[in-house]
Design goal:
Shape: globular
Helix content: 40-55%
Number of strands: 12
Number of domains: 3
Order of helices and strands: EHEEEHHEEHEHEEHEEEHHH
Oligomer: single chain
Structural class: alpha+beta
Strand content: 25-35%
Distance between the termini: 65 Å
Amino acid sequence: MWFKNLRVYRLTKAFSLTAEKLNELLEPHAFVPCGSQDAARYGWVPPLGRHGNQLVHAANGYLMVCAKKQEKVIPAAVVNEKVEELAQAISDKEARQVGRKERQNLKDEVLLEMRPKAFAKSRLQYAYIAPKDGWVVIDAASASAAEELLENLREAISSLAVVPLAAKNLPQQTMTHWLTAPEAPAQFEFGHETELRDPKDSGSVIRCKNQDLCAEEIHNHLVAGLQVHKLGLVWRGGVEFIVDDQLAIKKLKFSDALLEKADSIDSENAAQRFDADFSVMTLEISALLKDLLAAFGGANTESVSVEEVMVRAARAEAERHAAEVEEVAF
């Protein structure tokens, strides 16, 4: 359950749902396994797995949810080979070429035939809502996976006004300044990994792993104009991670001392063990994110969510229509 990646979204409106109400709203969207002809299914499962039956786990004001996605695995090479065989058979029999649209129809037929026998692959996606901090934290390595979870969560609860967490200072410029100095921000030390890019040539990339980031060679690249887009950092001497220019955190590794702290909490069963881990982890992530945001000049709170943009547009349209009606009446 310990998160390895962090995709953070800022709540632009207060989140007022209780754990009980959120659980009630998620229940109609609980996970159902793929049927014989389903390509994929997405739904909510208990964060505690077989040790729990609630779709929301609450602790210290944080609300954890877990999404499950199941997909039928049909290798593209197998499908293409079968389509080619069918297309060749038609071509030989009718002495004609099989067009693109007909090939697509053949592909659909092949998928329809193979899907019931295909293996189903599943993955879990954890996330938690932190109303008091004002954000949603998702353990996702990619933005697309995080957005998928948010989209399904928004569908279940009707409204979720969030935007990707952004800083007041541009991350790539700030990280470049740190490494050029070289001086890490307060509460942080440099790790041993970075990615440098040429702002004039997106294809020019230098990746450094297991390196001294204060070495002269790296400094020379920065002086030459390259910018830092990913940077390894160590927080408070123990928590290691890599932050990128979108403020996404990857390869998050909690210190042994913190894991031992969680283990030292008395627990009689798996549910209590999960609760202890969740409580310790969320408090640590909260402190980490606050220090990281401070290092980047604070959170940028000027951006608004898509939901708010739509509401404002609808309000403006209503006001325009009312003005037109008033003008006609006059």
